[in-house]
Amino acid sequence: MTEGRTPHSPLLCDGSNATVRNPISPDGRTVPGERHTIPAREGRAVHVNAGDRLLILNPKGHQVCDFFALAYGSPAEMLSMEHTRTALGKVYVGAGDTLVSNLRRPMIEIVEDTSPGTHDILIASCDHARYQKLGAEGYHDNCADNFRMALKAIGIEPIHVPSPFNIWMNIPVGKDGRYAWTAPVSKPGDHITLEAKQTCICIMSACPQDMTPVNGIDTEPAELVFWIEEGA
Amino acid sequence: MTEGRTPHSPLLCDGSNATVRNPISPDGRTVPGERHTIPAREGRAVHVNAGDRLLILNPKGHQVCDFFALAYGSPAEMLSMEHTRTALGKVYVGAGDTLVSNLRRPMIEIVEDTSPGTHDILIASCDHARYQKLGAEGYHDNCADNFRMALKAIGIEPIHVPSPFNIWMNIPVGKDGRYAWTAPVSKPGDHITLEAKQTCICIMSACPQDMTPVNGIDTEPAELVFWIEEGA
Predict the structure, then answer these.
(1) Which of A80, A109, A117, B72 has CA 20 to 30 A from B204's CA?
(2) A122/B85 touch (CB, cutoff 8 Å), yes or no
(3) Please, is A4 exposed, middle or buried when counting C-beta atoms within 10 Å of its C-beta (0-12, 13-18, 19+)?
(4) How does pLDDT run across B150-175, given as a tens digit for each residue?
């Protein structure tokens, strides 16, 4: 939190939690199998080569992961939920689905999902304005800033904050098109396996939402863990 | 169409229909009541003062309008469908709803809608890659380029192409979250009235989609008409 710098803007990277100081490495590269923790309320970026797999583990089970991906070397190409909805013809995604970029190129395939498969591709990342509207006072950690800080920590400046793939987020859409903000149905130890269809920078935020039940009915944000597995 | 410049990129303003040469005025300003036609397959940008209303008329009834808005003087603030879905708690919009920006500020209120109210806020604008996937050869007019060209025509360069408000586009979402690409249910002469909640540049594209029935079962893109009415 940066005292005195108000109002915080959803257009600026003005958060200051440890995300910006603790990248997994200077360029986001890691070695296969090395496990990294994303502390509660923080974010991390990781370089994933085409064909490699990124495993994201949900130790407590109730924690949402806001997930983003940028094409390596071409950060204007981003994983895009609106293009993915068009490509898949549906508003949900699950194992077997390939998520595409704003160039409509395959970027991330969901190859394994141990949870019941409830994820969200409709809702914007939380940001300063979201928490202000919910009644937060002062700065509140948020996924939009975690996205920008995780990238800043490895020397990348994104053009904007794209709409995220909200892993384990449970936003059921009713027959009338209205939806509810409900707790995840994932369980402790669930993981999801994502295969990079092109070399990407993947960004994950352990969503700091503690004013609605999207991270569980106890509204207690928790950590996430991730690692890379090499492709065959 | 620019021969020899391939591949066209969804990241570039590389279209060349008349949109880029025929702005309604050098800065997009107009006088109340003056009617402007958006020829089939083209786009236009218009300056709308806070409190004024933008009326968009669908003469043939079956034509979709991809609609966008940027904050005047601050084009990084854009009308955002993902933030609007969050604000409204639903995946459809209709008369009485206020659409918000990526700063979660009110931007556009739908104050009147003579159609049955079927619009889309889920699907990305068509672009070169979309038409390639549908089998088009060479360049095909598209809403992403129309958005960029309409802005270029009045001297504005957008940061990216946001997810559009697809007026009259009929993409029914089924109980299983899958949707269909179907013809509009609007009728000839329908119009929609949008009130600017802040001073905006509004961009409209008469969607050139002629390879799916989103612009009617005859897949014949048509013109749109718009004008401004001063607020009370």
Answers:
(1) A80
(2) yes
(3) exposed
(4) 999 999 999 999 999 999 999 988 87
